[in-house]
């Protein structure tokens, strides 16, 4: 994925400012390390005053989340097209998770701040940054799986998508905490666990 943010729905003056700050922050994180970069340095690099920076991003972790979601927005369309060439729900979702694992393995230094902030947002039920666009993608694939009889319809596709998303975040968190483990393997475990609960079964309500 290229180091740029998506256009279209993400455009607008406020969004452009957030994108500029995020790009400046990520450049500094790569050069100096996440922990070694201060908010003041990011403000200077983005040519904004500190008040503006904190208005958009109260903490450095939020910058990582915003930037990563921009990367995802750029890549998701082609990834979904590739996924839709696969014959089953399991294969389609595996396509997205395989791409995610490859990306994270190249950007491991951003994983800890990303996961930390995502779970913090859930705990506090706040934060300007919306849930990742991967959730609607999961929902679309789950809906197709339900229509095909692969997945149970006892639970709405949107709720199942949220569960799958948090399972993938837990897999990512495990990988961050245990550097020697395989992220693709953890994603496989998460997907298998999801399928155990979501798979349509004979003799039980779909």
UniProtKB/TrEMBL annotation:
This chain's protein is named: TetR/AcrR family transcriptional regulator
Q: Which InterPro entries does its entry note?
A: Homeodomain-like_sf, HTH-type_TetR-like_transc_reg, HTH_TetR, Tet_transcr_reg_TetR-rel_C_sf
* Top-level lineage group: Bacteria
Q: Does the keyword Transcription apply?
A: yes
Q: Where is the HTH tetR-type domain?
A: 15-75
PROSITE patterns listed in its UniProt record: HTH_TETR_2 (PS50977)
What the entry lists under SUPFAM superfamilies is as follows: Homeodomain-like (SSF46689), Tetracyclin repressor-like, C-terminal domain (SSF48498)
Q: Which organism is it from?
A: Luteimonas endophytica
Query: What keywords are assigned to this protein?
Result: DNA-binding, Transcription, Transcription regulation
Q: Name one Pfam family in it.
A: TetR_N
- The DNA-binding region ranges are 38-57
UniProt-listed Gene3D superfamilies: Tetracycline Repressor, domain 2
PANTHER family linked: HTH-TYPE TRANSCRIPTIONAL REGULATOR BETI, HTH-TYPE TRANSCRIPTIONAL REGULATOR RUTR
């Amino acid at each position: 994925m290229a180091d740029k943010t998506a256009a279209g729905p993400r455009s607008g003056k406020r969004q452009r400012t957030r994108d500029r700050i995020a790009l400046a922050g990520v450049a500094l994180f790569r050069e100096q390390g996440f922990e070694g970069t201060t908010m003041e340095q990011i403000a200077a690099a983005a040519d904004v005053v500190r008040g503006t920076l904190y208005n958009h991003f109260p903490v450095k972790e939020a910058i990582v989340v915003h930037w990563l979601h921009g990367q995802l927005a750029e890549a998701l369309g082609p990834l979904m097209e590739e996924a839709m060439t696969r014959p089953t729900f399991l294969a389609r979702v595996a396509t997205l998770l395989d791409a995610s694992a490859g990306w994270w393995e190249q950007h491991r230094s951003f994983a800890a701040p990303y996961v930390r902030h995502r779970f913090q947002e859930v705990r506090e039920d706040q934060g300007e940054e919306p849930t990742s666009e991967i959730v609607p993608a999961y929902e679309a694939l789950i809906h197709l799986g339900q229509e095909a009889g692969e997945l149970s319809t006892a639970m709405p596709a949107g709720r199942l998508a949220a569960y799958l998303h948090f399972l993938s975040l837990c897999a990512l968190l495990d990988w961050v905490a245990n550097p020697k483990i395989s992220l693709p393997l953890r994603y496989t475990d998460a997907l298998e666990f999801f399928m155990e609960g979501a798979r349509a079964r004979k003799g039980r309500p779909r």
